[in-house]
Design goal:
The protein is mainly beta. It has three helices and 25 strands.
């Protein structure tokens, strides 16, 4: 049975951190002097770093690859030797950065002799797939694929330190429409993927460095999103001044509607110093059915302090849970005290403290 690329990617993401690799095993990706044309001709990638020490080979096919960067874009040149390439053959490119944290998702992209093939939503979001540029050409010995991966296509990367990225290439080779595929991969049997070190130019559009508590960065349509140890974004740097709709779009692909959940959360609040606080809801509704409540689900209230193009999360707190019920009121008074009242009768208070909210009392009234 073939091991699927998504399963391999998931295993990489949740596996315990491996001992530090020898620095020589990290392949530093060079910067090209000229932007390559993505046309399937690999001559303009001659200065790229080989990412496979020797060809990954099967009975009738082999696979090699190289990588380089121009500006903020990673380019891959992949050569496939195949004595009988057919339309059903599939090339898969898997990318993941373990240094970005165990919750950081990877990316899996697919290509055929006709160019890009669709990935599942679990493998890559639609906007990441749309950002990929690729061309595949037939050659006398098989196929040549040239792939351009701008920041929108790359997985979450470390916010500080080297930009390390693990790469796996796989080719499903069928020698006939009725023949099961033979998988050729650069990561056979759980072998370590190729680790690349990208140059800082990949973050060229990030004009402001994130604070130390941001551990990883991900490009999204409209800007950059920074994560700490939690699932929800901690820091946002947008392409233009943030509004509530643009903030919600950057924070979550499916931000929740307070009105639809009967949560009384104001869109905007004002701090004592005049700063703007915008609210976003994320998570899953535990009361999707009226008969039961799913204890493993909750809706979270995320409050962001917004200053122009930048937003920093200043509070993450439950807004709808089995124990608390739903938030019936969220108010911020002129002194900086934030009060959240729930349908269960619980009331929770916070006080603004320089750059975040701190809880001031426990229990309910």
């Amino acid at each position: 049975m073939l091991t699927s690329l998504p399963a391999l990617l998931l295993a990489l993401a949740v596996a315990p951190a491996s001992p530090a690799r020898d620095e020589a095993s990290v392949r530093r990706v060079p910067e090209l002097a000229h932007r390559p044309r993505v046309d399937g001709e690999l001559r303009d990638l001659m200065g790229a770093t080989p990412v496979v020490a020797r060809a990954a080979a099967g009975p009738s096919a082999s696979l090699t690859g190289r990588a380089a960067v121009y500006g903020d874009t990673l380019y891959l040149g992949i050569e496939i030797t195949d004595d009988q390439p057919i339309t059903a053959d599939l090339l898969s490119v898997s990318l993941h950065s373990p240094e970005a944290g165990v919750t950081a998702p990877g990316r899996v992209f697919h290509f055929g002799s006709d160019g890009k093939r669709p990935s599942s939503p679990d493998e890559a979001p639609a906007w990441a797939q749309a950002a990929v540029e690729a061309a595949v050409q037939r050659t006398p010995s098989g196929l040549a694929a040239e792939v351009a991966l701008p920041p929108l296509a790359l997985p979450r990367l470390p916010a500080h330190g080297p930009l390390l990225l693990d790469l796996c290439l796989a080719y499903d080779d069928r020698d006939g429409d009725e023949v099961d595929a033979q998988r050729i991969t650069t990561c056979p049997g759980g072998a370590s993927p190729v680790r690349l070190e990208l140059p800082e130019s990949v973050l060229a559009t990030l004009k402001q460095r994130p604070p130390p508590e941001v551990l990883s960065l991900e490009a999204r349509p409209g800007g950059w999103v920074g994560f700490g140890e939690r699932l929800d974004p901690r820091w946002i740097l947008a392409d233009r001044a943030l509004t509530l709709p643009s903030l919600r779009a950057l924070v979550s692909d499916a931000a929740l509607d307070p009105a639809a959940l009967r949560l009384y959360v104001p869109d905007r609040m004002t701090l004592p110093n005049g700063g703007a606080i915008l609210a976003v809801l994320s998570g899953q509704d535990p009361f999707e059915t009226e008969e039961t409540c799913a204890a493993d689900r909750e809706v979270r209230l995320l409050l962001y302090r917004v200053r122009g193009r930048m937003a920093e999360r200043v509070l993450e707190w439950p807004a709808r849970t089995c124990a608390l019920g739903r938030a019936l009121s969220v108010t911020l008074d002129p002194a900086g005290e934030l009060t959240v009242g729930y349908s269960s009768g619980a009331t929770v208070r916070f006080l603004w403290s320089r750059d975040h909210f701190e809880r001031t009392e426990y229990g309910s009234r």
